[in-house]
Every structure is written in structure tokens, then in C-alpha cells.
Amino acid sequence: MNAKPGLAEQNSATPPAPAAKPKNPAKSSPTAAFGKALAQTDQEARRKAAAILEVLAGVRKPSDAAQALRITPMRYYLLEMRAIQGLVKACEPAKLGPKASPDREAQRLRRQVAALERECARYAALARVAQRAVNLSPPLADKKTVAGKKVRRQKPPVRAVKLLARVKESLDSPAATAQPAPAPQAASAL
């Protein structure tokens, strides 16, 4: 009997009601979202959905639903299959990130083209600088005849290509230009 006074009174009393949560106006309830989605759909689509749901729930037979919708039973089964496919597709997890759209894709491609054009211009400038550094003239552009056909360039002989490679090697290596050519020994004997 050493109970604390007031403990029995607390146990017999009803627990206090939890405080009401404030509603977030930005978030809507699922039923409100469903009602909004229904309001945005066509009345005929809602009739078809109701008939399909009645058949799936066992309230109606497929032939009765087809008759109510004024379509053939075969058309009803096709409609039901499309509805179930839509249901399964809607149950897939949503992909995160921005959604693909033709406008965004076009904008991304424009940015990519601009970046590639800048890169091409940069490489062309570097090529011109490199040509000036080795005192080479830039390659000539393809000549066209009056008729608009390209003039065929003759292939250089193989020895010219080999000679050109040797000249470029001599330009690249500073050691080759720094060494003087050896004098003929016959001239020193005289």
C-alpha cells in the first residue's frame, strides 16, 4: 500500500491525444493526386478503365463489359491486355535524373558541335604554327577545273618521299645540323 498517490488516477485516465501534424500544402495526398489525374483524363477512358476493373474484380464477365462498352469481346481482351501492360509499366521504378527530351538532346548536340569546332580550330592553328616553325608552306588546297571536277594529283615518286623524310629528320634533330660535314681526305693530302 505504499503506492504513490495519483498513480492510480493516471492509469485510469485516458492517454493524452497526440498533437495534430501540420499539413504540408506542397504535398498532396494520394487520393487527391488520383482525383487530379482522373480529372485530366477523357470520360471514355474512365469508362473503359472502370469496366476492366470490374472484370478483374469479378463483378462482371468480359462479355458483359464488352457489351457495356459497345465493343466486341476480342477488342475487349486487347483493351484489357493494354491496360495490364500499362499497369506493369507504371510499377517499374522511376529513373532518376532529368528526363530525355528532343529539345535537351538538340541542345546537348549543339554544345558538342561547338566544342568540336573550337577544338578543330585550335588544332588547325597549332598545325600552322608548327609549319611556320620548320619553314614549310601549308599544303595547297585541291584545285578544281571549270567543270567542277577535281584535278588528279600525281603520286610523288618513292625516292621523293624518302628524301622528304630525311629532310624532316634533319630539321627535327639539332645534332645533325650542329656537326660539320667531314672534309674529303684527298684534299688534305695535297
Describe this structure in words.
The chain has nine helices and no strands. Among the domains are: 31-90; 101-138. Helix 4 crosses helix 5. The chain has 190 residues and is an all-alpha fold. The termini are far apart.
Computed structural class: mainly alpha
* Radius of gyration, taken over Cα atoms and rounded to an integer in Å: 43 Å
Distinct helical segment count: 9
- Strand-residue fraction? under 5%
User: What are the secondary-structure elements, in order, as H or E?
Assistant: HHHHHHHHH
- Straight-line distance between termini: 142 Å
Kindly report the average pLDDT value.
Answer: 77
Which shape, going by the Cα principal axes?
A: elongated
- pLDDT < 50 stretches: 7-11
Helix content: 55-70%
Sheet with the most strands, sense and barrel status: none
Number of strands: 0
